């Protein structure tokens, strides 16, 4: 395990966070310009594959509970939440489009989140951005995961991803916040490719990648 560092308010951590945020924006802008042809290609393929918008936008909870709109490529049919498994996404879910399955398998649906990074709403590394109704059910301890910007990948993603429960994922995120350092981020970056290439952790061992129980009013919160 990584040695626990000083609190997020310490001068050392403040400087390290400044470097992290600067890195996110500078590298984010560079990568966005670099992958524009890829983004355009994926957008065209999505439109050719199925009817509906190219992007899926959804309100998520960011650092300190601030709401923002997350960007993803659409991977499911329109109005998917009212069909089949509802809020749950299961293995071989028929609502996932042909192109959407490929995008999900290789995490390419997350590419538009580089826009969120450039806007300063997300980081490359951090707890995955969550939904408001989940945060409403957090304990004070679990809310500590909101003390860092949400990330495209994070400590919970390289330590089980969807094969562990939400409670376990949140606890890993809290540990990440309590023990954060630039070295820990580097470790996560180095381990992320292996997670992306490991298709076994896309869905949980029950075949469901969304195991948080929502209410009828939460139907528009499918991710």
What is the β-strand count?
4
SS summary, helix count: 6
Number of domains: 1
Strands ordered across the widest β-sheet = 1-2
Descriptive labels:
223 residues; mainly alpha; two-stranded antiparallel ribbon; 6 helices; 4 strands; globular; disordered C terminus
Describe the protein.
The protein is mostly helical and 223 residues long. It has one domain (11-221). The chain has helices spanning 11-49, 98-105, 113-118, 132-135, 166-178, 182-197; strands at 55-61, 67-73, 123-125, 151-153. The strands form two sheets. A two-stranded antiparallel sheet has the order 1-2. Strands 3-4 form a two-stranded parallel ribbon. Strand 3 (123-125), helix 4 (132-135) and strand 4 (151-153) form a beta-alpha-beta unit. Mean pLDDT is 85; it is low at 204-223.
Helices, strands, pairings?
Blueprint: H1 11-49, E1 55-61, E2 67-73, H2 98-105, H3 113-118, E3 123-125, H4 132-135, E4 151-153, H5 166-178, H6 182-197
Parallel strand pairs: 3-4
Antiparallel strand pairs: 1-2
How would you summarize this macromolecular structure in one to three sentences?
The protein is mainly alpha-helical and 223 residues long.
